[in-house]
Design a protein that fits this description.
By secondary structure, this protein is α/β, with parallel strands linked by helices. The chain folds into two domains: 99 residues, Rossmann fold (3-Layer(aba) Sandwich); 183 residues, 3-Layer(aba) Sandwich (Rossmann fold), CATH 3.40.50. Helices cover 37% and strands 12% of the residues. It has twelve helices and ten strands. The strands form two sheets. A seven-stranded parallel beta sheet has the order 6-5-4-7-8-9-10, with helices on both faces.
């Protein structure tokens, strides 16, 4: 798409993301940057690369980018919303089921040669039908998660958001509640928020202590939303029953992390958007944002649209 639009494309072929000095050196040679989301685009980067016309983020999240610094130098930042909602909600839904039935742990018992006989009261999980699903962040992904849980298990849906989601309320009978009600009433609490100053470390010891001892915590948003040491403590002390994580804090998770050996925990290596359909869609949108900027001076998915209105000097 980019080359067909007449753009010359320089591709990084290294194993893993560039260091910031490498990225700055290469960015100084180009007009636009398509970032896979692991690049640290902070105030220092933008001070060094203020010449850039646009940055396309190959992700819906953009917590790796200092949006304020980008806006100060007039660089529009774009992302790829919507296209990965189904895939990420599938992972959240799958983690919920896996945790409720201790699937990851029971799979490991086979590998360890521990499956010897039928033991009717060993490693029991619980059913999800009729339970209460709490959603923190009822956006596009949260809405799909609510649809999955309502349709499959007839779960009661409650949510907390910065604003009411009338679509969720009309389609699934979702009830808007305070944050305190959310953490007290949820049997499964699924996080679908952005990582911001308000949400960073929000799910900590104090919050876990107010959740049901029988509850499951699911996080497929960003690892920084939960305090991992506090989560481990909550699970060990029985403040909550289980956890399913597609994101960890930090990432990548070390192989000796105690969460990986807990029977009521399921952890995945940040694969929420890892389907052919989602990744192809993300690529098309990320490229399309850049092409649209050069062809029409419009960016369909712009995070800081005010820079387009003011124009770059």
């Amino acid at each position: 798409m980019l080359t067909d639009a007449g753009l010359e494309v320089l591709e990084w072929q290294g194993d893993g993301p560039m260091t910031q000095p490498e990225l700055i050196e290469r960015a100084k040679q180009v007009n636009a940057l398509l970032s896979l989301g692991a690049d640290k685009l902070d105030k220092h980067f933008f001070n060094q690369c203020s010449h850039l016309d646009i940055i396309g983020q190959f992700a819906v999240g953009y917590d790796n980018i200092d949006i304020e610094a980008a806006s100060l130098v007039g660089i529009p930042i774009s992302n790829t919303p919507d296209v990965l909602s189904e895939a990420t909600a599938d992972v959240a839904f799958g983690l919920m089921i896996a945790v409720s039935r201790k699937m990851f742990f029971n799979h490991k018992t086979i590998i360890r040669g521990e499956w010897k006989k039928f033991e009717p009261l060993k490693n029991l999980g619980f059913q999800l039908s009729g339970k209460t699903l709490g959603i923190f962040g009822m956006g596009r992904i949260g809405l799909v998660m609510a649809k999955r849980c309502k349709g499959a298990f007839d779960m009661r849906i409650i949510y907390h958001n910065r604003s009411r989601n009338h679509e969720a309320e009309q389609l699934f009978g979702a009830k808007y509640v305070s944050f305190d009600e959310l953490i007290r009433e949820s049997d499964v609490l699924s996080v679908h928020s952005v990582l911001s100053d308000e949400t960073r470390g929000l799910f900590n010891r104090e919050v876990f202590s107010q959740m049901k001892p029988s509850s499951i915590f699911i996080n497929t948003s960003r690892g920084g939303v939960h305090n991992e040491a506090d989560l481990i403590e909550a699970l060990n002390q029985g403040s909550i029953w289980g956890a399913g994580l597609d994101v960890t804090n930090p990432e990548p998770m070390k192989p000796d992390n105690p969460l990986l050996d807990m029977p009521n925990v399921a952890v995945l290596p940040h694969i929420g958007s890892a389907t052919v359909e989602a990744r192809n869609g993300m690529a098309r949108i990320a490229a399309g944002n850049i092409i649209s900027f050069y062809q029409r001076r419009e960016v369909p998915n712009c995070i800081n649209p005010q820079v387009l209105e003011s124009g770059k000097s």
